[in-house]
Write a structure and sequence with these properties.
- The protein has 137 residues and is mostly helical.
- It has a single domain, classed as Arc Repressor Mutant, subunit A, CATH 1.10.10.
- The chain has 7 helices and 3 strands; from the N terminus they run ααααβααββα.
- Strand 2 and strand 3 form a beta hairpin.
Length: 137
């Protein structure tokens, strides 16, 4: 596998173990026939649609996004990175609520902690799915 393909998988999976594993499975199951990154991304979005929908919509489960996590994640999509303080203005939540939501989202692996309380998007695949659902404010 080329270095470029490995870098692309890491970028799109965000180092999320499940997403990385499934990306590799799809590549190897297709015998490397997915020539372009666009084809691979489309295949991964199709494959993970139900997973992502469950993460986004099953609020009552501990590994899923509640209202606060959904709003904070959408604010991150619009701003690319943020702190609990900076994201309060986009969510209507106080700093503690935003910080709690950021910790939950970071625990899923679709965002990551940078430094000085700053978080950034990590999984471009999940971000693309959210954008395609037309649910970003």
């Amino acid at each position: 596998m080329s270095e470029e393909k490995i870098t692309s998988i890491i970028e799109w999976s965000g180092c999320h173990p499940y997403l990385t594993q499934q990306s590799l499975n799809i590549i190897f199951d297709s015998n490397h026939q997915l020539e372009s990154r666009a084809n691979l991304i489309d295949k991964l979005l199709q494959y993970h649609d139900k997973d992502f929908s469950a993460w986004w919509n099953a609020e009552h489960l501990s590994s899923c996004f509640g209202e606060a996590e959904r709003k904070v994640y959408c604010a991150l999509i619009q701003n690319r990175k943020g702190t609990p303080k900076s994201l309060t203005q986009f969510t209507g939540f106080n700093r503690v609520q935003v910080a709690d939501a950021l910790e939950v989202i970071a625990g899923t692996g679709v965002i990551r902690y940078l430094d000085d309380e700053c978080y950034t998007l990590s999984s471009r695949l999940f971000e693309e799915w959210v954008i395609q659902q037309d649910i970003v404010n």
